[in-house]
Amino acid sequence: MDLVATITANWNYLIVILLMMGGLFIVISQNNMVKKLVGLAIFQTSVFLFYITVGKVAGGTAPILMSYGKAAYSNPLPHVLILTAIVVGVATTALGLALVLRIHAAFGSIEEDEVLAMKVNDSLPRVSRILEQQSDRLGDRQGQVGVEGEAEK
What we know:
By secondary structure, the protein is an all-alpha fold.
């Protein structure tokens, strides 16, 4: 079988692969958090299309019993699962957008590298303060051991 015939016979799998790779590329390459969410939505859509494609039986009909002979039936379970997955995907996207709004309110940016840089800069004083507190506690403990050791002598 030549390549063109194979591609035309399985064009739906090619679309799934292109959408999946496109969504993954967007998630990896973009720093904007909204664009990352769009990439995740495209990736989810490719998975939905894949499950629907796999669930379809060539020449199959709806699984409604008829009075005439044997018939090939398509499995309705993948379609039902995809409906549930679509609802979960919309809810996840809404939650992600709400988190992006919250991040924008807190940091003033939705660019991942800028937000991470701001977090590091904000945490540096906190980290140095924690290190100072730990060194003070360690110094106090060493002073107490030294005093106790002198008292025992």
